[in-house]
Amino acid sequence: MEKTEQWSSKIGFILSSAGAAIGLGAIWKFPYVAGQSGGGAFLLLFILFTLLIGLPMLISEFIIGRGSGREAVSAYKKLAPDSFWTVTGKIGVVGCFLLLSFYSVVGGWVLMYTCMALFGNVIEGGDASALFGTVTENPWLTISGHAIFMLLNILVIAAGVRNGIERASKYMMPTLFIFFIILVVRSLTLDGAVEGVRFFLQPDFSKITGEAVLYALGQSFFSLAVGFSCMVTYSSYLNKEVSIPASAGSVALMNIFVSVLAGLAIFPVVFAFGFEPAEGPGLLFVVLPSVFSQLPFGELFLFMFLLLFLFATLTSSFSLLEIITAAFTKGKQSSRKKISWISGAIVFLAGIPAALSFSTLSDVLLFKRTVFGATDFLVSNILLPLGSLLIALFIAWRMDKSLVKEQYYLSANKMSSTYSIWLLLMRWAVPITIVIVFVYTISQFNQ
Question: Which residues cross the membrane (predicted)?
């Protein structure tokens, strides 16, 4: 029997898990959603929901993974053999496949922008909006970016857990934090930056609507990479000397920290140059290049921002390809390289329609959405809530409670007293919250 891979250290596991969680959600989506939803008040709600909803779910996936010692699909088969619950892992694999197919397209955009910024071609172009259109509407550029981004993922996953994911995360995550701190310091030294800081950190609850609360719920819940059993697969490589509650807490706090850094890097700059904070998804690709163009050494700072964004996007996508690869290798490391290449190639091919959604396939609509938009809606608003709900119900009502307690208490030390609170949240607060978010998003289907 082949030896199952394991993380080499606790810090390697935490950095890799944090890398899986910190991606488009924390650096791209969080700032523009916060800008649209009241700034400081939204931040407080996001932190509250992350600790009360996202963190318990993260602990749950860690328990299922280490408790079974199996990847996503096999984990549920082992813990609940010959039962309906095995569909939970299958939803996770399908969801990760579809998510990576269009996530890689955005990763390709970031890769293209990073390369252009390195050679000074982003700011020199002048019209950031036109440049974004040039990148996204050019079939060859988008497919090339998509292909290279997937190739980077394949190379890392094929190298294995220790030599691939963990090694890449150990370099990328510290670099991400260093670059972020440099950018925050630069942003805070601008004239007028204080207005951006005040907007982001000073709560104005008059701007909070029911929709903003649900956005905060969704953002906090889905920004920790839970719901598709990615963390089940990651924690299956975890040894018994590591505390699950403490590790999950570290990942959640790092995610909050990066979200705060993203806000402090972006909002002071946006306010200093008179842009609107509620610019929407174009904040990263359209607004920030325009802002950095007005700064001394702006191209350098833009390149640093795009590079850290690329790192975050990659470390997050590693977990998506890993769950797909692990589901088919089933612990047989001799087949990892081959399956990594095959899986990555199939994801690339499946993502081509999404890559062409802004050019040659822009007129092809599914439920009034482009292929990219329809796939995003299916993954984010149908499969992810469904997978999350199944995981919550499984850990709270189906999984052997003696095994759950054993995994929670292992090396937990001071964290062991939180077990009852965690279980209460998983039995009631988390499932109810998921249903509320799910019902709301479905109600928005035709809007």
Answer: 12-30, 42-64, 84-106, 140-161, 173-194, 214-238, 250-275, 300-327, 339-358, 378-397, 418-442
Is the distance from CB of 311 to CB of 172 less than 8 angstroms? yes
Spatial contact of 353 and 122, defined as CB atoms under 8 Å apart:
no
Query: Do 16 and 166 contact (CB within 8 A), yes or no?
Result: yes
Asked if residues 425 and 52 have their Cβ atoms less than 8 Å apart, the reply is yes
Going by C-alpha positions, the residue among 1, 13, 34, 60 that lies closest to residue 408 is 60
Average pLDDT over residues 142-161: 97
* Phi, psi torsion values for 5, nearest 5 degrees: -65, 155
pLDDT at 1: 40
Tokens of 246: 């403490």
Average pLDDT in the chain: 90
Query: For 274-294, what is the mean pLDDT?
Result: 75
Q: What is the CB neighbour count within 10 angstroms for residue 107? A: 27
Cβ 289 vs Cβ 302: under 8 Å:
yes
Q: Which residue has the tokens 């109810």?
A: 432
Q: How many angstroms separate the CA atoms of 29 and 24, rounded?
A: 6
Burial classification of residue 417, based on how many CB atoms lie within 10 Å of its CB (0-12 exposed, 13-18 middle, 19 or more buried): exposed
The predicted-structure confidence for 402-441, as pLDDT tens digits, reads as follows: 999 999 999 877 666 899 999 999 999 999 989 988 888 7
Judge contact between 318 and 157, C-beta under 8 A. yes
CA distance 283 to 28: 8
Segments in 87-166 forming alpha helices (H): 87-118, 128-137, 139-158
Region for residue 335 given its phi and psi (left: phi exceeds 0; alpha: psi -120 to 50; beta: otherwise): alpha
DSSP state of 3: P
d(CA 98, CA 388): 16
pLDDT higher at 144 or 211? 144
Name which residue leads in pLDDT, 294 or 63.
63
400 residue type, one letter: D
Residue type, 312: A
pTM for the model: 0.94
Q: How far apart are CA 357 and CA 17, in angstroms?
A: 31
Please state, as a whole number, how many other Cβ atoms lie within 10 Å of the Cβ of residue 336. 22
Looking at residues 269-293, what average pLDDT do you find? 77
C-alpha 101/C-alpha 317 separation (Å) is: 10
CATH number of 10-443: 1.20.1740
Residue by residue, DSSP assigns 288-304 as HHHHHTTSTTHHHHHHH
